[in-house]
Design goal:
The complex is a heterodimer of chains A (811) and B (168).
Chain A: H1 29-33, E1 49-55, E2 61-67, H2 69-73, E3 77-82, H3 83-89, E4 109-110, E5 116-122, H4 125-133, E6 136-141, H5 148-152, E7 167-175, H6 178-184, E8 187-195, E9 207-213, E10 218-223, H7 228-239, E11 246-250, H8 263-275, E12 281-284, H9 287-293, E13 301-309, E14 315-327, H10 334-339, E15 354-362, H11 376-393, H12 398-405, E16 414-415, E17 421-422, H13 427-438, H14 440-452, E18 456-468, E19 487-493, E20 499-503, H15 512-524, E21 531-535, H16 552-579, E22 586-589, E23 592-595, E24 602-604, H17 605-614, E25 628-633, E26 652-664, E27 671-681, H18 688-707, E28 739-742, H19 765-777, E29 786-787, H20 791-805
Parallel strand pairs in A: 1-12, 8-29, 10-11, 14-15, 20-21, 27-28
Antiparallel strand pairs in A: 1-5, 2-4, 2-6, 3-5, 7-15, 8-13, 9-10, 9-12, 13-14, 16-17, 18-26, 19-20, 19-25, 22-23, 23-24, 26-27
Chain B: E1 5-11, E2 14-20, H1 26-33, E3 52-55, E4 58-61, E5 74-76, H2 89-96, H3 106-119, H4 125-132, H5 143-156
Parallel strand pairs in B: 1-5
Antiparallel strand pairs in B: 1-2, 3-4, 3-5
The chains are: A alpha+beta (811), B alpha+beta (168).
The complex binds FE2/S2 (inorganic) cluster (2 copies).
One FE2/S2 (inorganic) cluster binds at residues 41-44, 46-51, 61, 63 of chain B.
Chain lengths: 811, 168
């Protein structure tokens, strides 16, 4: 049955929609503010044991032996597992690129600090932690490699000897006549950049309760997972189980941002419950485990970037060379982080040709995980810095060089050199609005006045694209399979007319249950109190990926409206039977089934549903009596990637301009954000309040990335940031008030015209803050090319530059 | 292992006698023994503030205290905020101003804000930022939380009860 998914609010069968498009309160909140939401660590099962994991304290060592005998004797201990159990009951993790995986616990050697070596299940966590202290591991230390540059070279110690190299992947993508563009350029600008490791750090760490069923050799996982179905398939592959024998029950969770991780800990818990004869085993990752061994670390990059530019400011070519330190394995989508930039390689600009020279290398650090934005934020940062550098080289204003290069409004849909198609936009309108909101000329005046007083003040104006609605085809070049990411929803009406929406993802903060409720409320013209959203486990849910890659708002809208359309068709058919008319003469209007041409002949939707379930005698023959329908939405028009990685990948392209003013304290290296303005266009805003929340939250994370957050490893690959005392997250005192404006260019390709917006400002803020910092540093003749621009780095830069700036001559 | 100790604590008005291991943290005691799981644990080392509860009306980090240290005291947790089944004005304000996303940090913020507004019913922006400086929220970027606190203060002072959320 083919259906038409509403493209605009006017297409809904409701003469006055009142929910969609408004910042209505969230259905998630009453449980959350009363502490009643069932986060995974709240759950207690009968007979449940608690796990603790022993982790490697050294980065690279051969394991001579693991002695668990003392731990096993401790009262209250039920199971102890080591790498031997991992070998017996599991396989090395699948990876991208392929065959860079290891078992969930070290079998022959450890490859990073924090790698699991053994684990215990005991009556409580305290006893489990006592027990792991009784496990004796004999390590033979090996020389570690902590530095990507060293790891690529001939003398770097090998993370996986059998590979004969630390290079996981080396590829050059060329899109168009790049050499010609650089040969024909009036100017070529080249610069090196470094982006240090940082990561997601949701306030709730990963947690799972694993329960093995020895009778049919199946596994149930209650877990705080972002994508239950995907997580379950991965666990089945690693644990050597049939995909239908792993059932995942997703729990509401305290944020993810891509970096919930948990795969290894979950696999360890699965081995423990199996060894404990099927007693449920809870494992809650603690914060130090998360920071050193969880899904916490992303983007560890060395860049060299060149721009080919004409004298009028037009950028005619882009060459990005990236060396990215993947950490010890390829298990956690680190490589995906490096190829997602293909979806937005040339940013909002009409740069005709580009080259990407990509090297991924293994070191003795934690394997990289996804993080909000999934890789483009550092890419956008280097591209935007290059735009600034070109502007200065040509004596152009920062805003003007962007304007000159923007993809023009009339050019959409627009295919970028790396293959993706942008759906729609009006980039100049966004820029103009941002400059106006910030009062850019006034900011420049303020800056001049501040400089005259000897203050170090700078302004950044940057723009970036947020690719929305991810697709596996975007990652084909590192081995991802498939095109399309299905998202399903079921909408049903019960015998008393109440509506249930069933989805396959747990709530994690973006307000998606509210969105589903808004859509159904407007579609069937009912109130929030008549609707309930429930999450199903992976055995019962329709295919679903859940949140990720700025997709769920769009995908869920498609799934829910598709299900509503199908349900409407069923109701129409039944009503037509009851009215003794042809279905073509009946329609759904404002929650009633009405005869189109016979005024007064109508029936409330709830009554039709009640008839279907309770009055079989009245039903037309052959009718399906369930007032229920499922729809699985997948992005239309996606294509298979060619050998250079080109495809229609992300369905939408939101765009933003940020204008930021900062002041640097030369004495301390501290940066204060004086002004923060953001204008973005993410198409139709289905719930403006939750979209605003995504913007504000992602600006805060972007500020953390730009100024504070960094995982530090020493030259022995020992991690020095294993607590929140060392890994600094932004607090209320680092995040400034923001001025916000919007432009709305609905997507022509999505239900109701919304674009992906969850990653939000993470794509733009780090670039914007660094632009402003470098503007401030301009009089000193130095550039901050390392992220985070932490106080120590800036202080050193300023103080190294000062003698020159003060006219003391070169040193 | 050290011998267990009997403690008596009053939580949200109910007095509990319990036998605890001296090393049990207050957070684990509240969550595990009393099943008051609204108090969350985000770091267990005193930085994030998710575990904040009120002890004799003053905010403390329940991950940094032992249950035995709370013997003889009176505590308030997020479960004790509702009045007659209605949301407390601070809770309402957070809902109306979208002062939460995942909500994991929220109980700690609510406790902190309650302490703030009890001591300073009409706090300045500076005071609010000061009071919240030890609470980490990874989702919201704090702006909506600041708006929530303002609204909560207004509500508690009897101002008309409306946030910036739109009603249909
Ligand atoms: S859990 Fe207590 S401060 Fe973080
Ligand atoms: S709402 Fe998620 S951490 Fe604050």
């Amino acid at each position: 049955m083919s259906i038409e998914i509403p493209k605009t609010l006017d297409d809904l069968p409701n003469s006055s929609p009142r929910w969609v498009g408004r910042g209505v309160p969230r259905v998630e909140d009453p449980h959350l503010v009363t502490g009643r939401t069932e986060f995974i660590d709240n759950v207690v099962l009968p007979g449940m044991l608690h796990a603790a994991i022993l982790r490697s304290p050294i980065a690279h060592a051969r394991i001579r032996s693991v002695d668990t005998s003392q731990a096993e004797k401790l009262a209250g201990v039920f199971a102890v597992v080591t790498g031997e159990d991992a070998k017996r009951w599991s396989l090395p993790s699948p990876t991208m690129p392929e065959e860079w995986g290891t078992h969930c616990m070290a079998t022959d050697k450890v490859r990073y600090v924090g790698e699991p070596v053994a684990a215990v299940a005991a009556v409580n966590r305290y006893v489990a932690e006592d027990a792991i202290e009784l496990i004796a591991v004999d390590y033979e230390p090996l020389e570690p490699v902590a530095d990507a540059v060293k790891a690529v070279g001939p003398d770097g110690p090998l993370v996986m000897e059998e590979k004969g190299t630390n290079v996981m992947l080396q590829r050059v993508f060329t899109w168009g006549e790049v050499d010609e563009a650089f040969a024909d350029a009036d100017r070529v600008f080249t610069e090196k950049f470094r982006w240090h490791r940082l990561g997601a750090n949701p306030m709730e760490t990963f947690g799972v309760i694993a329960q093995w069923d020895p009778v049919d050799e199946s596994l149930t996982l209650r877990a705080s997972v972002q994508s239950a179905l995907h997580f379950g398939l991965g666990r089945a592959a690693v644990l050597g189980l049939a995909s239908n024998k792993v059932r995942v029950i997703p729990h509401p969770h305290g944020g993810s941002f891509g970096g919930k991780g948990g795969t290894r800990g979950c696999d360890v818990a699965a081995l423990l419950t199996r060894k404990a004869g099927g007693r449920p085993v809870k494992w809650i990752e603690d914060r130090s485990e998360y920071l050193t061994g969880g899904g916490s670390q992303s983007w560890d990059r060395h860049y060299e970037v060149s721009l080919a530019v004409k004298n009028d400011g037009r950028v005619t070519g882009l060459h990005v060379k990236l060396l990215d330190d993947m950490g010890a394995t390829g298990e956690a989508f680190g490589a995906v982080n490096t190829v997602k930039p293909l979806a937005c390689f040339t940013g909002p600009y009409a740069i005709p040709v580009a080259r990407y020279d990509l090297t991924l290398v293994a070191t003795n650090k934690l394997p990289q995980s996804p993080y909000r934005g999934m890789g483009p934020p550092p890419h956008n940062y280097v591209l935007e810095q290059m735009m600034d550098i070109a502007a200065r080289g040509l004596d152009m204003d920062l805003a003007e060089i962007r304007r000159v290069n923007f993809i023009p409004k009339g050019a959409f849909p627009y295919t970028i050199p790396s293959g993706n198609e942008y759906d729609s936009g009006d980039y100049e309108a966004v820029l103009d609005k941002a400059l106006e909101l910030a009062d850019y000329p006034a900011l420049r005046d303020q800056q001049a006045a501040a400089r005259a007083e000897g203050r170090c003040v700078g302004i950044g104006v940057v723009s970036a694209i947020e690719p929305g609605v991810f697709d596996w085809n975007a990652y084909a070049v590192v081995g991802a399979q498939g095109t399309g990411v299905p998202e399903g929803a079921t909408v049903s009406i019960d015998v008393l007319g109440k509506i249930t929406i069933r989805v396959g993802f747990a709530m994690e903060g973006q307000g998606q249950y509210t969105l589903a409720t808004q859509l159904v409320a407007d579609y069937f013209c009912v109130g929030f109190e008549d609707i309930k959203v429930v999450v199903l486990d992976t055995h019962s849910a329709p295919p679903a990926f859940g949140p990720g890659g700025s997709r769920l708002g769009v995908a869920l809208t498609g799934a829910v409206l598709g299900a509503c359309e199908r349900l409407k068709a069923k109701l129409v058919k039944v009503a037509a039977g009851l009215f003794q008319m042809d279905a073509s003469q009946v329609d759904l209007v404002d929650g009633n089934l009405v005869a189109k041409d016979v005024p007064g002949v109508e029936m409330p939707m709830a009554a039709v549903a009640g008839t279907m379930l309770g009055r079989s005698d009245l039903l037309p023959p052959g009718v399906d009596p369930r007032p229920e329908a499922t729809y699985v939405w997948t992005a239309p028009g996606r294509t298979e990637a060619d050998e250079q990685g080109r495809a229609k990948t992300y369905l939408t392209a939101a765009q933003a301009v940020h204008v930021v003013m900062v002041e640097l304290d030369e004495e301390t290296g501290l940066v204060e954000i004086l002004e923060y303005c953001v204008v973005d266009d993410c198409g139709t805003r289905l719930n403006p309040a939750t979209v605003e929340g995504q913007t504000e939250g992602s600006i805060a994370q972007g500020i953390g990335a730009a100024l504070l957050e960094e995982y530090v490893y020493d030259d022995q690959a020992q991690i020095l940031t294993s607590s929140f005392m060392d890994y600094l997250l932004p607090t209320v005192n680092e995040v400034p008030a923001m001025k916000k404006g919007i432009v709305v260019t609905p997507s022509p390709f999505t239900p109701l015209g919304a674009k992906g917006c969850g990653e939000g400002a993470m794509h733009t803020t780090p670039a914007a803050v660094l632009s402003a910092i470098n503007d401030a540093l301009l009089p000193l003749g130095v550039r901050a090319n390392e992220v985070p621009a932490s106080p120590n780095r800036l202080w050193t830069l300023i103080h190294d530059a000062k003698p020159q700036a003060a006219g003391e001559g070169p040193r | 292992m050290t011998t267990q100790q009997t403690i008596s604590v009053t939580v949200n008005g109910t007095t509990h006698e319990a036998l605890v291991d001296p090393r049990t943290t207050l957070a684990d005691f509240l969550r595990g023994e009393l099943a008051l799981t609204g108090t969350h644990v985000g770091c267990e080392h005193g930085v994030c503030g998710a575990c904040t509860v009120l002890l004799e009306g003053r905010s403390v980090r329940s991950c940094l205290m032992l249950a035995v240290q709370a013997d003889g005291t009176s505590l308030t947790t997020v479960e004790g905020m509702e009045e007659d089944g209605n949301l407390h004005p601070i809770q309402l304000a957070f809902v109306e101003e979208h002062g939460l996303q995942c909500g994991f940090c929220t109980p700690g913020f609510l406790m902190t804000v309650r302490e703030l507004l009890e001591n300073s019913p009409d706090p300045s922006d500076e005071e609010i930022r000061d009071a919240l400086g030890g609470q980490i929220c990874r989702c919201t970027g704090y702006q909506s939380i600041l708006r929530s606190v303002k609204l909560a203060a207004a509500k508690l002072q009897g101002a008309p009860l409306a946030g910036t959320t739109e009603s249909p």
